Amino acid sequence: AAAEFSSIHVIQTAGVAARIGAAQVKNSAAKIGKPCVVHDWPAIPTDDAKAEYDALYNVGSDLILQGANRATLLVFVGTGEPGEMALAVILAMLPFRGIQLAYVTPAEDYENPLQTLRSPSGVFEYTATQPERMGRVSLAAIFGPLAPRTFKEPLSTWAPLRPERHPEEQPAPFKIGGLDLPMVTFEGDYYKGVDRLAALLVGHYGSEIYPVVSVGETGDALGYGDDLLGALAELDCPGFYFPHASGETCKSPEAYGKVELLKAIGAAKQSNKKVVVIAVGGGVNGNATGMIAAMTGSVFVEVPTTLMHYNDATTSAKKAFSRSVAKSPEVLR
């Protein structure tokens, strides 16, 4: 019941019907004594992934600025256009590791919210049955003109890359929640290690992968990212190289939501490639690039290059951007 939430935040899309719906939600909130804030969702061209990305983070930041918290109910009043539900669900997953979502739509056909949802551009996607989401599903209810219906889907099987024992590798068993997360330290020759990693990725995920190698300034200068991308290209898996600024001050959506990166991921998806995002070195690199992978439904592989990165950023499993909101930093995860 709405009375169990601390506040209600409404996202209204363009159009008279959506605004009327948002006003009705706000009136209902007033009747039960709950604070209610209405946010505008911008009109976005169908194929503009960058505009989708900016809208997700701008509105997500506004939610925090306007007082949303973990106990907030988010109501997305939509138009029923294809791909809209995906954006609503991804938006709800950003603040505070997810807040509960009610989606209001005039659509006259059912859309299964537990199957893969893709944004209008096709770049961003969300699959509720992915085991790495550990059953966290923000979308709680859908309201519209259709008769009630319940959706059920089994969770997919967790199938990470589990390398067979190699004489120059040391496994480090690790779990997040109930999922094992294989971690391996390679102790042999550097170039042999790069070739070994490339071969493991292609062997596990197939030859139709599209690698996106993300690397910060230090790793870029040392050639780590170039070496790995080159090794993958030699296996007929060319990809995209994404060098970027390093450091905590650069852990922001603006630093990673680059047009060229989103276009490369979108083009790979249109070609039915499996996008594999590989963060080579750097704690912030893994934190932020992991967010891009999660939002685009991509495989994510982290390649720590120092013990600090291995023991801190990787094992923390935190994938997030930081936002400076008022005088305190908040996190979009």
Compact summary:
By secondary structure, the chain is an alpha/beta fold. The chain has 10 helices and 17 strands.
Structure characteristics:
333 residues; alpha/beta; Rossmann fold; 10 helices
Describe the structure.
The chain has 2 domains: 2-143, Rossmann fold; 169-332, Rossmann fold, CATH 3.40.50.1970. It contains 10 helices and 17 strands. The chain has helices spanning 16-31, 49-65, 84-93, 190-205, 217-222, 224-234, 253-256, 259-270, 283-296, 307-316, and strands at 7-12, 36-40, 72-77, 100-104, 117-118, 125-126, 139-143, 169-171, 175-176, 179-180, 184-186, 209-215, 240-243, 274-280, 299-303, 321-325, 328-332. It starts with 6 loop residues before the first strand and ends with a strand.
Spatial order of strands in the largest sheet = 2-1-3-4-7
N to C succession of SSEs: EHEHEHEEEEEEEEHEHHEHHEHEHEE
| Unreliable residue stretches | 324-329
**Termini separation (Å)?**
26 Å
Query: What is the second-level CATH architecture of the largest domain?
Result: 3-Layer(aba) Sandwich
Oligomer kind = single chain
Strand content: 15-25%
Name the overall outline: elongated
Strand and helix map with partners:
Layout: E1 7-12, H1 16-31, E2 36-40, H2 49-65, E3 72-77, H3 84-93, E4 100-104, E5 117-118, E6 125-126, E7 139-143, E8 169-171, E9 175-176, E10 179-180, E11 184-186, H4 190-205, E12 209-215, H5 217-222, H6 224-234, E13 240-243, H7 253-256, H8 259-270, E14 274-280, H9 283-296, E15 299-303, H10 307-316, E16 321-325, E17 328-332
Parallel strand pairs: 1-2, 1-3, 3-4, 4-7, 12-13, 12-14, 14-15
Antiparallel strand pairs: 5-6, 8-11, 9-10, 16-17
